[in-house]
Amino acid sequence: MGIYEKGFERPSPIQEESIPIALTGSDILARAKNGTGKTAAFSIPALEKIDQDNNIIQVVILVPTRELALQTSQVCKELGKHLQIQVMVTTGGTSLKDDIMRLYQPVHLLVGTPGRILDLAKKGVCVLKDCSMLVMDEADKLLSPEFQPSIEQLIQFLPPTRQILMFSATFPVTVKDFNDRYLRKPYIINLMDELTLKGITQFYAFVEERQKVHCLNTLFSKLQINQSIIFCNSVNRVELLAKKITELGYSCFYIHAKMLQDHRNRVFHDFRNGACRNLVCT
């Protein structure tokens, strides 16, 4: 019922490929773009396989960022709206004490970032010995040097029979190496023939550094842009560009990793609700 309430009428290609295989218990290595419905591709079988009468953690979904953790947990809650499944989200930068208290209540599905879940597992409050499914979303980022040691330690807390589902837009060497070591005869899905999502047109503007703000100003003045997200590669650039866009007379918010989590959540929430036209972020 929750699936229909989310507006799904028929499965997307990644859902059609993944869901039946995941329900058989096989490991999956799937390559798919963001925006293709991949969150539901692993959330639906995860929810389906959970025994809601058994108050233990049965599924762990690992993601690389706090924002993605919140988004994924929300999707799980909406899809499982009519089930008695308890979903918890935990990430770094939030109260560890609150998470520990929450884990004394029933949790069936845990969504979070690797470092925080590992910390809770080491403290003995996050018990994963009966967790039958591990999902890794954006696996290429999760297997970066920042996260990989935590993930390899975390896997030791899971039973040897666990099922692993890996979803990634790219398959770097780290993903292939991890696959060889931890997945058992995984079912391979590759839906990356087209790099651009349907309904999206991409343009590339080759400009020198000093022309970038002028280029943005031209785009803003010539095009009908309801909302835009502008990505920068550093915290300093985010703040500098947001200041320049504001000086040009356009409404602008910004978020980056050095801001408090509550502040980031509030900014993102306001942007999604249309309070501002432009968001600059890392």
UniProtKB/TrEMBL annotation:
Q: Got a GO cellular component term for this one?
A: P-body
Which UniProt keywords are present, listed alphabetically?
ATP-binding, Helicase, Hydrolase, Nucleotide-binding
Protein location: Cytoplasm
InterPro entries noted in UniProt: DEAD/DEAH_box_helicase_dom, Helicase_ATP-bd, Helicase_C-like, P-loop_NTPase, RNA-helicase_DEAD-box_CS
Domain Helicase ATP-binding per the UniProt entry, residue ranges: 19-189
Q: What does this protein do?
A: ATP-dependent RNA helicase involved in mRNA turnover, and more specifically in mRNA decapping.
Official protein name in the record: DEAD-box ATP-dependent RNA helicase
What is the species of this protein? Medicago truncatula (Barrel medic)
What is the gene called? 25481490
